[in-house]
Amino acid sequence: MGVKQMNPRSPGTRFQIKDDFSDLTKSFPEKKLLTKQHQKSGRDWRGFVSMRHRGGGNRQHYRVIDFKRDKDNVSAKVIGIEYDPNRNSRIALLEYEDKEKRYILAPLGLTAGDTVASGAEVEIKPGNALPLSAIPIGTTVHNVELEPGRGGKLARSAGAGLSLLAKEAGYAIVKLPSGEQRMIHVNCRATVGQIGNLDAKNVIMGKAGKKRHLGRRPEVRGVVMNPCDHPHGGGEGKSGIGREQPVTPWGKPTLGKKTRRPRRHSDRFILTRRA
Question: Looking at the record, which segments are called Disordered (predicted)?
């Protein structure tokens, strides 16, 4: 992947940096691997807004991704690398020897025509999925399971990768990009390599309209609101928040407040907290 700086022919393109999609080799998705995606507008199962500033955006189909990689000892050929509107990483379309097709997250270096497989005895190369017990120490992995057979949960975004540090007492110790070190059972599967599309972090939208296309509605700072709308609001001219610590519109601490539930069941697996 690469990025390109737009010429400043308009205010929206003055600082815009776009994806050039040069790494894509397939233009249209596999229809049998698409499902409808209903707009939830940031609401939870009760219908209440659980995430603000969400709504609208272009309609998109969901690409069914194989996060489990449970088709063992059957080699698959990479048909092409595709764009996925639901994530910032690329996806690869695989065709197995029995003509079944599946999508996987495209690791760095995987190209059309390559062959990948999954299982405990496959080769250690990007795109192959193995249990952590069969992966050498020091290998970079992605799409790592937290529980055996539940599918990959960790390191699924563009450029993400975990470092396998050690194995002891039936658990593997991995280091996350945040600096956190945690134990994962050696029967959990992981895919070798780092997720591709490394330049995703360098993309600059340049205008508000591109955010709206992604379903992101405008955000307004609390200090420019009235006191009845936000605890930071009010005051004459450009004033501060008037508090020792920033708070949410409902008065709860934010911006640095730890939100992880205390005494969570997975605390015992975390060796070093993230920085």
Answer: 222-275
pLDDT band of 264, cuts 50, 70, 90: very high
Residues 253 and 140 in one domain: no
Q: How confident is the prediction for the chain on average, in pLDDT?
A: 95
**181 plus 258 within the same structural domain:** no
Residue 165 and residue 75: Cα distance in Å, rounded?
28
Q: Could you report the per-residue pLDDT of 235-260, keeping only the tens digit for each?
A: 999 999 999 999 999 999 999 888 88
Rounded Cα distance, 170 and 187, in Å: 8
Distance CA 115, CA 127 (A): 8
CATH number of the domain where residue 226 is located: 4.10.950.10
Tally of domains within the chain? 2
Enclosing domain of residue 262: 222-267
Angstrom distance (rounded) from CA 62 to CA 113: 25
CB neighbourhood size of 144 (10 A):
23
Gyration radius (Cα) of the chain, Å? 22
> Domain containing 26 — which CATH number?
2.40.50.140
Query: Tens digit of pLDDT for each residue in 37-59?
Result: 888 899 999 999 999 999 999 99
Summarised one tens digit per residue, pLDDT across range 96-106 is: 999 999 999 99
The structure tokens listed for 249 are: 């519109």
> Distance between CA atoms of 168 and 145, rounded to whole angstroms?
18
Residue 206, domain member (yes or no):
no
Go through 183-200 and write b for each residue having 16 or more CB atoms within 10 A of its CB, e for each that does not: bbbbbbbbbbbbbbbebb
Does 110 reside within a domain? yes
Q: 33 by DSSP, 3-state: which? A: helix
